Amino acid sequence: MAQPAYVQGTLDTLLSADGSVDPAALSLRDTTFVVLDLETTGGAPDGGGITEIGAVKVRAGEELGVLGTLVNPGERIPPFITVLTGITEAMLAPAPPIEAVLPSLLEFLRGAVLVAHNAPYDVGFLKAACARHGHPWPQVRVLDTAALARRALTKDEVPNRKLGTLAQFFRAAVQPTHRALDDARATVDVLHGLIERLGSYKVHTLGDAIEFAKAVTPTQRRQRHLADGLPHVPGVYVFRAADERPLYVGTSVDIATRVRSYFTASEKRARMSEMIGAAVRVEAVECAHSLEAEVRELRLIAAHAPPYNRRSKYPERVVWLKLTAEAYPRLSVVRSLADDDAAYLGPFSSRRTAELAAAGVYDAVPLRQCTHKLSVKTRTPACALAELGRCPAPCEHEITPEEYAHRAALPFRTATYGDPQPLVDALLARIEALSDRQRYEEAAVIRSRLVALLRATVRMQRLGALTGISELVAARRNDAYGWEIVVVRHGRLAAAATSPPRLHPRPTLDMARATAETVLTGPGPVPAASAEETERILAWLERPDTRLVETSGDWVSPARGAARFTTLLTRAEAAASRRDSSVRSSVTDRSDDARSLRL
Protein backbone atom coordinates (compact mmCIF):
# COMPACT_ATOMS: atom_id res chain seq x y z
CA MET A 1 0.00 0.00 0.00
CA ALA A 2 1.47 3.35 -1.04
CA GLN A 3 2.16 5.71 1.83
CA PRO A 4 1.52 9.46 1.71
CA ALA A 5 4.62 11.58 1.50
CA TYR A 6 5.89 13.11 4.70
CA VAL A 7 4.79 16.72 5.05
CA GLN A 8 6.31 19.09 7.58
CA GLY A 9 3.66 20.61 9.82
CA THR A 10 2.50 24.12 8.93
CA LEU A 11 1.30 27.05 10.94
CA ASP A 12 -2.29 26.15 9.99
CA THR A 13 -2.08 22.93 12.02
CA LEU A 14 -1.67 25.01 15.17
CA LEU A 15 -5.21 26.33 14.89
CA SER A 16 -8.01 24.72 16.87
CA ALA A 17 -11.31 23.72 15.30
CA ASP A 18 -12.81 27.17 15.81
CA GLY A 19 -9.77 28.89 14.27
CA SER A 20 -8.43 30.31 17.55
CA VAL A 21 -4.77 30.06 18.51
CA ASP A 22 -3.81 28.24 21.71
CA PRO A 23 -0.90 30.18 23.28
CA ALA A 24 0.17 27.23 25.43
CA ALA A 25 0.50 25.04 22.34
CA LEU A 26 2.52 27.69 20.54
CA SER A 27 4.99 28.49 23.31
CA LEU A 28 8.24 26.51 22.98
CA ARG A 29 8.72 26.61 26.73
CA ASP A 30 5.27 25.23 27.46
CA THR A 31 5.14 22.74 24.59
CA THR A 32 5.49 19.04 25.35
CA PHE A 33 7.96 17.33 23.02
CA VAL A 34 8.44 13.61 22.42
CA VAL A 35 11.96 13.21 21.04
CA LEU A 36 12.11 9.95 19.14
CA ASP A 37 14.66 7.80 17.36
CA LEU A 38 14.28 4.51 15.50
CA GLU A 39 16.74 1.83 14.56
CA THR A 40 15.75 -0.19 11.51
CA THR A 41 16.96 -2.92 9.17
CA GLY A 42 17.81 -0.21 6.67
CA GLY A 43 15.14 -0.93 4.06
CA ALA A 44 12.32 1.22 2.76
CA PRO A 45 9.41 2.02 5.12
CA ASP A 46 6.92 -0.73 4.30
CA GLY A 47 5.31 -1.29 7.68
CA GLY A 48 8.12 -3.40 9.11
CA GLY A 49 11.86 -3.21 9.56
CA ILE A 50 11.89 -1.36 12.93
CA THR A 51 14.33 -2.97 15.36
CA GLU A 52 14.35 -0.47 18.25
CA ILE A 53 12.36 2.51 19.49
CA GLY A 54 13.59 5.16 21.88
CA ALA A 55 11.47 8.13 22.94
CA VAL A 56 11.91 10.79 25.63
CA LYS A 57 9.09 13.14 26.66
CA VAL A 58 10.25 16.58 27.82
CA ARG A 59 8.74 19.98 28.64
CA ALA A 60 10.53 23.15 29.75
CA GLY A 61 13.80 21.23 29.96
CA GLU A 62 12.36 18.62 32.32
CA GLU A 63 12.16 14.93 31.46
CA LEU A 64 8.58 13.67 31.88
CA GLY A 65 8.84 10.09 30.63
CA VAL A 66 10.85 7.55 28.68
CA LEU A 67 9.83 4.77 26.31
CA GLY A 68 12.43 2.34 25.03
CA THR A 69 12.12 -1.14 23.60
CA LEU A 70 13.63 -3.53 21.11
CA VAL A 71 11.28 -4.63 18.34
CA ASN A 72 11.25 -7.93 16.48
CA PRO A 73 11.13 -6.91 12.79
CA GLY A 74 10.11 -10.37 11.60
CA GLU A 75 12.95 -10.41 9.09
CA ARG A 76 16.68 -10.98 9.00
CA ILE A 77 19.04 -8.19 9.98
CA PRO A 78 21.73 -7.29 7.45
CA PRO A 79 25.25 -7.82 8.83
CA PHE A 80 26.22 -4.17 8.32
CA ILE A 81 23.29 -3.08 10.53
CA THR A 82 24.52 -5.42 13.30
CA VAL A 83 28.00 -3.94 12.95
CA LEU A 84 26.62 -0.39 13.03
CA THR A 85 24.17 -0.75 15.94
CA GLY A 86 25.36 -3.81 17.83
CA ILE A 87 21.80 -5.23 17.65
CA THR A 88 21.80 -8.96 16.86
CA GLU A 89 19.05 -11.34 15.83
CA ALA A 90 19.45 -13.14 19.17
CA MET A 91 18.64 -9.89 20.99
CA LEU A 92 15.49 -9.37 18.90
CA ALA A 93 14.11 -12.89 19.03
CA PRO A 94 12.27 -12.42 22.38
CA ALA A 95 11.31 -8.77 21.60
CA PRO A 96 7.66 -7.86 20.87
CA PRO A 97 6.61 -7.21 17.24
CA ILE A 98 5.79 -3.68 16.11
CA GLU A 99 2.02 -4.28 16.25
CA ALA A 100 2.33 -4.94 19.99
CA VAL A 101 4.39 -1.78 20.57
CA LEU A 102 2.42 0.68 18.43
CA PRO A 103 -0.52 1.28 20.84
CA SER A 104 1.81 2.26 23.67
CA LEU A 105 3.91 4.48 21.40
CA LEU A 106 0.85 6.27 19.97
CA GLU A 107 -0.46 6.90 23.47
CA PHE A 108 2.97 8.23 24.46
CA LEU A 109 2.79 10.66 21.52
CA ARG A 110 -0.72 11.92 22.34
CA GLY A 111 -0.85 15.70 22.83
CA ALA A 112 2.86 16.18 22.15
CA VAL A 113 5.01 17.47 19.31
CA LEU A 114 7.12 14.77 17.68
CA VAL A 115 10.81 15.68 17.37
CA ALA A 116 13.34 13.61 15.43
CA HIS A 117 16.65 14.10 13.67
CA ASN A 118 15.95 13.70 9.94
CA ALA A 119 12.29 13.34 10.88
CA PRO A 120 10.98 12.23 7.44
CA TYR A 121 12.84 8.92 7.83
CA ASP A 122 11.43 8.06 11.28
CA VAL A 123 7.95 9.38 10.53
CA GLY A 124 7.86 7.39 7.28
CA PHE A 125 8.48 4.10 9.14
CA LEU A 126 5.87 4.90 11.80
CA LYS A 127 3.21 5.89 9.26
CA ALA A 128 3.82 2.71 7.27
CA ALA A 129 3.53 0.59 10.42
CA CYS A 130 0.29 2.32 11.42
CA ALA A 131 -1.17 1.77 7.96
CA ARG A 132 -0.20 -1.93 7.88
CA HIS A 133 -1.64 -2.70 11.31
CA GLY A 134 -4.82 -0.63 11.15
CA HIS A 135 -3.90 2.32 13.39
CA PRO A 136 -4.82 5.82 12.19
CA TRP A 137 -1.87 8.19 12.11
CA PRO A 138 -2.49 10.74 14.89
CA GLN A 139 -1.44 13.74 12.74
CA VAL A 140 0.98 15.00 15.36
CA ARG A 141 2.97 18.12 14.62
CA VAL A 142 6.57 17.33 13.68
CA LEU A 143 9.77 19.28 14.27
CA ASP A 144 12.98 18.19 12.54
CA THR A 145 16.18 19.08 14.41
CA ALA A 146 18.26 18.52 11.28
CA ALA A 147 16.20 21.09 9.37
CA LEU A 148 16.40 23.52 12.29
CA ALA A 149 20.17 23.13 12.45
CA ARG A 150 20.52 23.85 8.73
CA ARG A 151 18.84 27.22 9.28
CA ALA A 152 20.23 28.16 12.69
CA LEU A 153 23.88 27.10 12.42
CA THR A 154 26.48 28.20 9.90
CA LYS A 155 29.06 25.98 8.23
CA ASP A 156 31.76 27.81 10.16
CA GLU A 157 30.22 26.49 13.37
CA VAL A 158 29.56 22.90 12.31
CA PRO A 159 30.88 21.18 9.17
CA ASN A 160 27.72 19.09 8.77
CA ARG A 161 24.34 18.50 10.39
CA LYS A 162 24.85 14.92 11.56
CA LEU A 163 23.50 14.09 15.00
CA GLY A 164 26.97 13.20 16.34
CA THR A 165 28.41 16.52 15.14
CA LEU A 166 25.56 18.53 16.68
CA ALA A 167 25.68 16.59 19.96
CA GLN A 168 29.38 17.40 20.23
CA PHE A 169 28.78 21.08 19.36
CA PHE A 170 26.07 21.45 22.03
CA ARG A 171 28.04 19.33 24.56
CA ALA A 172 25.24 16.79 24.93
CA ALA A 173 25.35 14.70 28.12
CA VAL A 174 24.78 11.56 26.05
CA GLN A 175 26.57 11.02 22.77
CA PRO A 176 24.77 9.11 19.98
CA THR A 177 25.71 5.42 19.69
CA HIS A 178 23.29 4.24 16.97
CA ARG A 179 21.06 2.87 19.71
CA ALA A 180 17.58 4.38 19.79
CA LEU A 181 17.38 5.61 23.40
CA ASP A 182 20.91 7.02 23.45
CA ASP A 183 20.29 8.82 20.16
CA ALA A 184 16.94 10.16 21.44
CA ARG A 185 18.60 11.55 24.59
CA ALA A 186 21.32 13.14 22.46
CA THR A 187 18.62 14.69 20.26
CA VAL A 188 16.96 16.15 23.39
CA ASP A 189 20.13 18.09 24.20
CA VAL A 190 20.46 19.16 20.57
CA LEU A 191 16.84 20.37 20.61
CA HIS A 192 17.41 22.44 23.75
CA GLY A 193 20.59 23.93 22.26
CA LEU A 194 18.76 24.84 19.07
CA ILE A 195 15.87 26.43 21.00
CA GLU A 196 18.38 28.69 22.77
CA ARG A 197 19.87 29.62 19.41
CA LEU A 198 16.42 30.33 17.92
CA GLY A 199 15.87 33.11 20.43
CA SER A 200 18.38 35.26 18.53
CA TYR A 201 16.17 34.86 15.43
CA LYS A 202 13.09 35.98 17.40
CA VAL A 203 11.66 32.48 17.20
CA HIS A 204 9.82 31.88 20.45
CA THR A 205 6.79 29.79 19.48
CA LEU A 206 6.24 26.36 18.06
CA GLY A 207 4.68 27.80 14.92
CA ASP A 208 7.67 30.06 14.38
CA ALA A 209 10.04 27.11 14.86
CA ILE A 210 8.17 24.96 12.33
CA GLU A 211 8.25 27.74 9.76
CA PHE A 212 11.87 28.61 10.59
CA ALA A 213 12.88 25.05 9.74
CA LYS A 214 11.62 25.53 6.21
CA ALA A 215 13.48 27.08 3.30
CA VAL A 216 12.60 30.73 3.83
CA THR A 217 14.78 33.35 2.17
CA PRO A 218 17.09 35.64 4.13
CA THR A 219 14.85 38.56 3.11
CA GLN A 220 11.78 36.86 4.57
CA ARG A 221 13.63 36.09 7.78
CA ARG A 222 14.97 39.65 8.04
CA GLN A 223 11.60 41.30 7.36
CA ARG A 224 9.36 39.05 9.45
CA HIS A 225 9.19 41.76 12.14
CA LEU A 226 6.81 43.64 9.84
CA ALA A 227 4.08 41.23 10.94
CA ASP A 228 4.49 42.05 14.63
CA GLY A 229 1.58 43.68 16.41
CA LEU A 230 -1.00 43.30 13.66
CA PRO A 231 -4.59 42.55 14.76
CA HIS A 232 -6.37 39.21 14.34
CA VAL A 233 -9.43 40.80 12.70
CA PRO A 234 -10.87 41.04 9.19
CA GLY A 235 -9.61 43.92 7.14
CA VAL A 236 -7.11 45.24 4.63
CA TYR A 237 -3.32 45.27 4.92
CA VAL A 238 -1.03 47.62 3.00
CA PHE A 239 2.70 47.03 2.53
CA ARG A 240 4.31 50.46 2.33
CA ALA A 241 7.71 51.57 1.05
CA ALA A 242 10.05 54.02 2.77
CA ASP A 243 8.33 56.94 1.01
CA GLU A 244 4.92 55.71 2.27
CA ARG A 245 3.96 54.59 -1.24
CA PRO A 246 1.68 51.52 -1.16
CA LEU A 247 3.48 48.54 -2.65
CA TYR A 248 0.79 45.91 -2.25
CA VAL A 249 -2.77 45.82 -0.91
CA GLY A 250 -4.48 42.64 0.26
CA THR A 251 -7.40 41.50 2.35
CA SER A 252 -8.01 38.73 4.85
CA VAL A 253 -10.41 37.59 7.55
CA ASP A 254 -7.36 37.56 9.87
CA ILE A 255 -4.84 40.28 9.03
CA ALA A 256 -2.07 39.08 11.36
CA THR A 257 -2.15 35.46 10.20
CA ARG A 258 -2.25 36.41 6.52
CA VAL A 259 0.65 38.87 6.74
CA ARG A 260 2.75 36.34 8.65
CA SER A 261 2.31 33.88 5.79
CA TYR A 262 4.34 36.20 3.53
CA PHE A 263 7.40 35.41 5.66
CA THR A 264 7.05 31.60 5.53
CA ALA A 265 8.19 28.96 3.08
CA SER A 266 4.70 28.73 1.61
CA GLU A 267 5.25 32.12 -0.08
CA LYS A 268 7.23 31.31 -3.21
CA ARG A 269 6.22 34.09 -5.63
CA ALA A 270 9.25 36.00 -6.89
CA ARG A 271 7.42 39.32 -7.12
CA MET A 272 6.23 39.00 -3.51
CA SER A 273 9.80 38.36 -2.36
CA GLU A 274 10.84 41.52 -4.15
CA MET A 275 7.96 43.44 -2.58
CA ILE A 276 8.81 42.20 0.92
CA GLY A 277 12.39 43.39 0.50
CA ALA A 278 11.22 46.90 -0.42
CA ALA A 279 8.61 47.24 2.36
CA VAL A 280 9.35 49.06 5.60
CA ARG A 281 6.01 48.66 7.36
CA VAL A 282 2.58 47.07 7.09
CA GLU A 283 -0.52 49.15 7.73
CA ALA A 284 -3.70 47.41 8.90
CA VAL A 285 -7.18 48.76 8.16
CA GLU A 286 -9.67 46.99 10.43
CA CYS A 287 -13.09 46.34 8.91
CA ALA A 288 -16.46 45.33 10.26
CA HIS A 289 -16.53 42.12 8.22
CA SER A 290 -15.14 40.44 5.11
CA LEU A 291 -17.35 42.29 2.59
CA GLU A 292 -16.20 45.68 3.79
CA ALA A 293 -12.61 44.42 3.61
CA GLU A 294 -13.06 43.29 0.00
CA VAL A 295 -14.59 46.61 -1.01
CA ARG A 296 -11.92 48.68 0.74
CA GLU A 297 -9.24 46.60 -0.96
CA LEU A 298 -10.75 47.33 -4.37
CA ARG A 299 -10.97 51.05 -3.66
CA LEU A 300 -7.40 51.28 -2.34
CA ILE A 301 -6.03 49.41 -5.34
CA ALA A 302 -7.99 51.65 -7.72
CA ALA A 303 -6.83 54.80 -5.91
CA HIS A 304 -3.12 53.98 -5.61
CA ALA A 305 -2.42 51.33 -8.33
CA PRO A 306 0.20 49.53 -6.15
CA PRO A 307 2.98 48.15 -8.38
CA TYR A 308 2.78 44.61 -7.00
CA ASN A 309 -0.99 44.22 -7.38
CA ARG A 310 -2.01 42.78 -10.72
CA ARG A 311 -5.80 42.86 -10.60
CA SER A 312 -8.36 45.64 -10.16
CA LYS A 313 -5.77 48.38 -10.67
CA TYR A 314 -7.46 50.46 -13.37
CA PRO A 315 -11.26 50.21 -13.14
CA GLU A 316 -11.57 53.42 -15.15
CA ARG A 317 -10.12 51.67 -18.19
CA VAL A 318 -13.31 49.77 -18.95
CA VAL A 319 -15.03 50.36 -22.29
CA TRP A 320 -18.62 50.29 -23.51
CA LEU A 321 -20.45 49.54 -26.71
CA LYS A 322 -22.64 52.50 -27.63
CA LEU A 323 -25.44 52.55 -30.16
CA THR A 324 -25.06 56.03 -31.58
CA ALA A 325 -27.99 58.43 -31.76
CA GLU A 326 -28.35 59.25 -35.45
CA ALA A 327 -30.59 58.41 -38.37
CA TYR A 328 -28.71 55.20 -39.10
CA PRO A 329 -27.14 54.19 -35.73
CA ARG A 330 -23.93 52.19 -35.49
CA LEU A 331 -21.89 50.63 -32.68
CA SER A 332 -19.03 52.61 -31.22
CA VAL A 333 -16.51 51.63 -28.52
CA VAL A 334 -16.41 54.44 -25.93
CA ARG A 335 -14.54 55.01 -22.70
CA SER A 336 -17.32 56.61 -20.68
CA LEU A 337 -21.09 56.88 -20.46
CA ALA A 338 -22.89 60.05 -21.42
CA ASP A 339 -26.17 61.14 -19.87
CA ASP A 340 -28.14 60.67 -23.08
CA ASP A 341 -30.75 58.35 -24.54
CA ALA A 342 -28.24 56.16 -26.36
CA ALA A 343 -28.14 52.41 -25.68
CA TYR A 344 -24.98 51.13 -23.98
CA LEU A 345 -23.66 47.61 -23.36
CA GLY A 346 -20.89 46.84 -20.91
CA PRO A 347 -18.71 47.39 -19.10
CA PHE A 348 -16.00 45.43 -20.94
CA SER A 349 -12.57 44.94 -19.44
CA SER A 350 -10.82 45.53 -22.78
CA ARG A 351 -11.44 46.90 -26.24
CA ARG A 352 -10.82 43.45 -27.70
CA THR A 353 -13.68 41.93 -25.68
CA ALA A 354 -16.00 44.78 -26.69
CA GLU A 355 -15.15 44.29 -30.35
CA LEU A 356 -15.79 40.56 -30.02
CA ALA A 357 -19.29 41.25 -28.67
CA ALA A 358 -19.83 43.83 -31.42
CA ALA A 359 -18.90 41.23 -34.02
CA GLY A 360 -21.60 39.00 -32.53
CA VAL A 361 -24.13 41.81 -32.97
CA TYR A 362 -23.04 42.29 -36.60
CA ASP A 363 -23.51 38.55 -37.19
CA ALA A 364 -27.04 38.70 -35.77
CA VAL A 365 -28.52 41.95 -37.10
CA PRO A 366 -27.80 44.16 -40.13
CA LEU A 367 -26.14 47.03 -38.29
CA ARG A 368 -23.79 49.04 -40.47
CA GLN A 369 -20.09 48.74 -39.57
CA CYS A 370 -18.79 51.86 -41.28
CA THR A 371 -17.93 54.97 -39.27
CA HIS A 372 -19.28 57.58 -41.69
CA LYS A 373 -21.94 60.00 -40.58
CA LEU A 374 -24.79 59.26 -42.98
CA SER A 375 -27.35 61.75 -44.20
CA VAL A 376 -30.99 60.98 -44.90
CA LYS A 377 -30.83 63.41 -47.83
CA THR A 378 -27.50 62.75 -49.49
CA ARG A 379 -26.36 59.36 -50.64
CA THR A 380 -22.86 57.98 -49.97
CA PRO A 381 -21.10 55.32 -52.08
CA ALA A 382 -21.56 51.81 -50.69
CA CYS A 383 -18.70 49.74 -49.30
CA ALA A 384 -17.77 46.12 -49.95
CA LEU A 385 -20.02 44.85 -47.15
CA ALA A 386 -23.07 46.10 -49.00
CA GLU A 387 -21.93 44.36 -52.17
CA LEU A 388 -21.49 41.10 -50.20
CA GLY A 389 -24.96 41.39 -48.72
CA ARG A 390 -23.63 41.96 -45.19
CA CYS A 391 -25.11 45.45 -44.89
CA PRO A 392 -28.52 46.82 -45.98
CA ALA A 393 -26.74 49.83 -47.54
CA PRO A 394 -28.31 52.73 -45.62
CA CYS A 395 -25.62 54.87 -47.21
CA GLU A 396 -27.40 54.52 -50.55
CA HIS A 397 -30.83 54.81 -48.94
CA GLU A 398 -31.68 51.18 -49.78
CA ILE A 399 -33.44 51.02 -46.40
CA THR A 400 -35.51 53.64 -44.62
CA PRO A 401 -34.48 54.94 -41.20
CA GLU A 402 -37.66 53.42 -39.70
CA GLU A 403 -37.02 49.97 -41.15
CA TYR A 404 -33.33 50.17 -40.20
CA ALA A 405 -34.26 51.09 -36.63
CA HIS A 406 -36.66 48.12 -36.43
CA ARG A 407 -34.45 45.50 -38.05
CA ALA A 408 -30.98 46.55 -36.89
CA ALA A 409 -31.05 48.93 -33.93
CA LEU A 410 -34.04 47.72 -31.92
CA PRO A 411 -32.80 44.14 -31.22
CA PHE A 412 -29.55 45.51 -29.77
CA ARG A 413 -31.30 48.23 -27.79
CA THR A 414 -33.77 45.70 -26.36
CA ALA A 415 -30.98 43.26 -25.44
CA THR A 416 -29.32 45.85 -23.21
CA TYR A 417 -32.29 46.10 -20.84
CA GLY A 418 -34.61 43.23 -21.77
CA ASP A 419 -34.77 40.18 -24.02
CA PRO A 420 -31.68 39.33 -26.12
CA GLN A 421 -33.36 36.34 -27.74
CA PRO A 422 -33.42 37.73 -31.31
CA LEU A 423 -29.63 38.09 -31.17
CA VAL A 424 -29.19 34.65 -29.58
CA ASP A 425 -31.46 32.97 -32.12
CA ALA A 426 -29.63 34.53 -35.05
CA LEU A 427 -26.21 33.50 -33.75
CA LEU A 428 -27.32 29.95 -32.95
CA ALA A 429 -28.78 29.64 -36.44
CA ARG A 430 -25.43 30.65 -37.93
CA ILE A 431 -23.60 28.17 -35.71
CA GLU A 432 -25.93 25.36 -36.79
CA ALA A 433 -25.58 26.25 -40.47
CA LEU A 434 -21.78 26.30 -40.26
CA SER A 435 -21.62 23.04 -38.32
CA ASP A 436 -23.96 21.35 -40.79
CA ARG A 437 -21.46 22.26 -43.50
CA GLN A 438 -18.63 20.95 -41.26
CA ARG A 439 -17.09 24.41 -40.99
CA TYR A 440 -16.39 23.82 -37.30
CA GLU A 441 -13.65 26.40 -36.82
CA GLU A 442 -15.89 29.16 -38.13
CA ALA A 443 -18.70 27.87 -35.90
CA ALA A 444 -16.36 28.11 -32.93
CA VAL A 445 -15.60 31.74 -33.79
CA ILE A 446 -19.31 32.57 -33.81
CA ARG A 447 -19.69 30.74 -30.52
CA SER A 448 -16.99 32.90 -28.93
CA ARG A 449 -18.86 36.00 -30.12
CA LEU A 450 -22.08 34.62 -28.64
CA VAL A 451 -20.32 34.05 -25.32
CA ALA A 452 -18.94 37.62 -25.24
CA LEU A 453 -22.34 39.10 -26.10
CA LEU A 454 -24.33 36.99 -23.64
CA ARG A 455 -21.82 37.52 -20.85
CA ALA A 456 -22.10 41.29 -21.27
CA THR A 457 -25.91 41.36 -21.35
CA VAL A 458 -26.30 39.06 -18.35
CA ARG A 459 -23.75 41.05 -16.38
CA MET A 460 -25.21 44.44 -17.26
CA GLN A 461 -28.79 43.51 -16.40
CA ARG A 462 -27.66 41.91 -13.15
CA LEU A 463 -25.75 45.06 -12.17
CA GLY A 464 -28.59 47.35 -13.19
CA ALA A 465 -31.10 45.49 -11.04
CA LEU A 466 -29.14 46.39 -7.90
CA THR A 467 -27.82 49.83 -8.83
CA GLY A 468 -31.35 51.04 -9.55
CA ILE A 469 -32.21 50.75 -5.84
CA SER A 470 -31.61 53.92 -3.84
CA GLU A 471 -30.99 52.05 -0.60
CA LEU A 472 -30.88 48.41 0.43
CA VAL A 473 -30.10 47.11 3.92
CA ALA A 474 -29.11 43.46 4.45
CA ALA A 475 -27.67 41.32 7.24
CA ARG A 476 -26.29 37.86 7.81
CA ARG A 477 -25.20 35.85 10.84
CA ASN A 478 -21.48 35.51 11.50
CA ASP A 479 -19.63 32.69 13.23
CA ALA A 480 -19.80 34.51 16.58
CA TYR A 481 -23.63 34.66 16.36
CA GLY A 482 -23.66 38.38 15.78
CA TRP A 483 -24.95 40.09 12.64
CA GLU A 484 -22.95 41.48 9.73
CA ILE A 485 -24.84 44.50 8.37
CA VAL A 486 -24.46 46.38 5.08
CA VAL A 487 -26.10 49.49 3.66
CA VAL A 488 -25.96 49.58 -0.13
CA ARG A 489 -26.89 52.66 -2.15
CA HIS A 490 -27.04 52.45 -5.94
CA GLY A 491 -24.74 49.42 -5.90
CA ARG A 492 -22.13 51.08 -3.70
CA LEU A 493 -21.28 49.98 -0.16
CA ALA A 494 -22.31 53.01 1.89
CA ALA A 495 -21.88 51.53 5.38
CA ALA A 496 -20.85 48.31 7.12
CA ALA A 497 -21.20 47.25 10.72
CA THR A 498 -21.25 44.19 12.97
CA SER A 499 -23.81 43.76 15.71
CA PRO A 500 -22.42 42.04 18.85
CA PRO A 501 -23.72 38.59 19.85
CA ARG A 502 -26.77 38.32 22.14
CA LEU A 503 -27.83 41.90 21.40
CA HIS A 504 -30.64 43.03 19.12
CA PRO A 505 -29.11 44.24 15.82
CA ARG A 506 -31.58 47.13 15.29
CA PRO A 507 -29.53 49.83 17.14
CA THR A 508 -26.42 48.89 15.16
CA LEU A 509 -28.41 48.88 11.92
CA ASP A 510 -29.93 52.30 12.63
CA MET A 511 -26.50 53.72 13.44
CA ALA A 512 -25.09 52.32 10.19
CA ARG A 513 -27.86 53.94 8.16
CA ALA A 514 -27.47 57.26 9.94
CA THR A 515 -23.73 57.40 9.30
CA ALA A 516 -23.79 55.87 5.81
CA GLU A 517 -22.07 57.60 2.91
CA THR A 518 -24.15 59.93 0.78
CA VAL A 519 -23.97 58.44 -2.71
CA LEU A 520 -24.19 60.64 -5.78
CA THR A 521 -25.22 58.78 -8.92
CA GLY A 522 -24.21 59.02 -12.53
CA PRO A 523 -25.46 57.49 -15.78
CA GLY A 524 -25.50 53.81 -16.69
CA PRO A 525 -25.74 50.46 -14.89
CA VAL A 526 -22.85 51.29 -12.51
CA PRO A 527 -23.64 54.88 -11.53
CA ALA A 528 -21.82 55.06 -8.20
CA ALA A 529 -19.17 52.33 -7.95
CA SER A 530 -17.00 50.09 -10.08
CA ALA A 531 -18.62 47.03 -11.60
CA GLU A 532 -16.29 44.82 -9.57
CA GLU A 533 -17.41 46.39 -6.28
CA THR A 534 -21.09 45.95 -7.14
CA GLU A 535 -20.46 42.34 -8.13
CA ARG A 536 -18.76 41.65 -4.79
CA ILE A 537 -21.81 43.08 -3.05
CA LEU A 538 -24.13 40.99 -5.22
CA ALA A 539 -22.22 37.82 -4.36
CA TRP A 540 -22.61 38.63 -0.64
CA LEU A 541 -26.31 39.46 -0.98
CA GLU A 542 -27.04 36.29 -2.93
CA ARG A 543 -25.63 33.98 -0.28
CA PRO A 544 -28.36 31.74 1.15
CA ASP A 545 -27.81 32.98 4.71
CA THR A 546 -28.18 36.69 3.84
CA ARG A 547 -31.43 38.41 4.83
CA LEU A 548 -32.83 41.51 3.17
CA VAL A 549 -33.95 43.88 5.91
CA GLU A 550 -35.18 46.97 4.09
CA THR A 551 -35.20 48.27 0.54
CA SER A 552 -36.36 51.50 -1.01
CA GLY A 553 -37.49 49.83 -4.22
CA ASP A 554 -38.02 46.52 -5.95
CA TRP A 555 -34.99 44.34 -6.64
CA VAL A 556 -36.13 42.67 -9.87
CA SER A 557 -34.86 41.43 -13.22
CA PRO A 558 -36.77 41.29 -16.51
CA ALA A 559 -38.95 38.18 -16.77
CA ARG A 560 -37.58 37.46 -20.23
CA GLY A 561 -34.19 39.05 -19.62
CA ALA A 562 -30.71 37.84 -20.31
CA ALA A 563 -30.51 35.90 -17.04
CA ARG A 564 -32.63 33.09 -18.50
CA PHE A 565 -29.74 32.31 -20.86
CA THR A 566 -27.31 31.71 -17.97
CA THR A 567 -27.34 27.95 -18.51
CA LEU A 568 -26.64 28.39 -22.20
CA LEU A 569 -23.80 30.80 -21.40
CA THR A 570 -22.25 28.44 -18.83
CA ARG A 571 -22.26 25.51 -21.21
CA ALA A 572 -20.96 27.56 -24.12
CA GLU A 573 -18.09 28.84 -21.96
CA ALA A 574 -17.28 25.28 -20.88
CA ALA A 575 -17.31 24.09 -24.50
CA ALA A 576 -15.04 26.97 -25.55
CA SER A 577 -12.55 26.13 -22.80
CA ARG A 578 -12.21 22.46 -23.79
CA ARG A 579 -9.05 21.82 -25.79
CA ASP A 580 -10.51 19.43 -28.31
CA SER A 581 -12.06 19.55 -31.75
CA SER A 582 -15.60 18.52 -30.79
CA VAL A 583 -17.07 21.81 -31.95
CA ARG A 584 -20.05 20.20 -33.65
CA SER A 585 -21.35 18.43 -30.53
CA SER A 586 -20.83 21.51 -28.35
CA VAL A 587 -22.61 23.90 -30.68
CA THR A 588 -25.54 21.56 -31.30
CA ASP A 589 -25.91 21.06 -27.55
CA ARG A 590 -26.06 24.83 -27.19
CA SER A 591 -28.81 25.12 -29.78
CA ASP A 592 -30.85 22.46 -27.98
CA ASP A 593 -30.51 24.49 -24.78
CA ALA A 594 -31.67 27.61 -26.56
CA ARG A 595 -34.75 25.86 -27.94
CA SER A 596 -35.69 24.67 -24.45
CA LEU A 597 -35.30 28.19 -23.09
CA ARG A 598 -37.65 29.62 -25.70
CA LEU A 599 -40.49 27.38 -24.55
Automatic annotation (TrEMBL):
Molecular function (Gene Ontology), one example: DNA binding
Assigned keywords, A-Z: Exonuclease, Hydrolase, Nuclease
Segments of this protein annotated with the region Disordered: 575-599
One Gene Ontology CC term in the entry: excinuclease repair complex
Domain (GIY-YIG): residue spans on this chain: 232-310
Keyword DNA repair attributed: no
InterPro entries xrefs: DnaQ, GIY-YIG_endonuc, GIY-YIG_endonuc_sf, GIY-YIG_UvrC_Cho, Ribonucl_H, RNaseH-like_sf, RNaseH_sf, UvrABC_protein_C
Basic and acidic residues biased stretches: 576-599
A Pfam family matched in the record: RNase_T
SMART domains: EXOIII, GIYc
UniProt cross-references to PROSITE patterns, sorted A to Z: GIY_YIG
Keyword Nuclease: yes
GO biological process: DNA replication; nucleotide-excision repair
NCBIfam families associated with the record: dnaq, PRK07883.1-3, PRK07883.1-5
PANTHER family per record: UVRABC SYSTEM PROTEIN C, UVRC/OXIDOREDUCTASE
Record-given protein name: DNA polymerase III subunit epsilon
Protein's organism: Actinoplanes auranticolor
Origin organism lineage: Bacteria, Bacillati, Actinomycetota, Actinomycetes, Micromonosporales
